[in-house]
Amino acid sequence: MSTARQQLEAQRAEAERLRQRVAELEAQAAAEAPQVSEKEALGQSLEQLEALVQTKDQEIQTLRTQTGGPREAPDTTEREETQQKVQDLETRNSELEHQLRVTERSLEEARAEREQTRAEVGRAAQLLDVRLFELSELRDGLARLAEAAP
């Protein structure tokens, strides 16, 4: 977009320079009373310059249509609507940030609870292992007693 804009500005400057040159040549032609052949040469030169100016004007119009023309300032209602949309988006953003913080807090609490539950399950498993070992020892002891008894 910026290159199109630069081209547009360059074309405008060139068209303005050519207009000034045409005006200078017309003033010069009016001031001097050239001979007929010089008049024809100047006339041809003037026609060429006018054609070049028209070409540049067409290029400017083409560039304007490509860039969407000059940007117009938004009217008051558009500006207000845009401001309202921005304000609504900022409000929604704040709400989402709050929800995110609440969700993160809940997630951390759930993680802590899960770790606590894992620790309790680990302690219960160790206690169960100890009880199973004790029961196994007790069973072995009872089996020995039953074999020793007549």
UniProtKB/TrEMBL annotation:
GO terms for cellular component: cytosol. Residues 72-118 have a biased composition (Basic and acidic residues). It comes from the Eukaryota. One of its GO terms (molecular function) is G protein-coupled glutamate receptor binding. Residues 61-118 are annotated as: Disordered. InterPro entries: Homer (IPR045027). Keywords: Phosphoprotein. Signal peptide: none annotated. This is Homer scaffold protein 3.
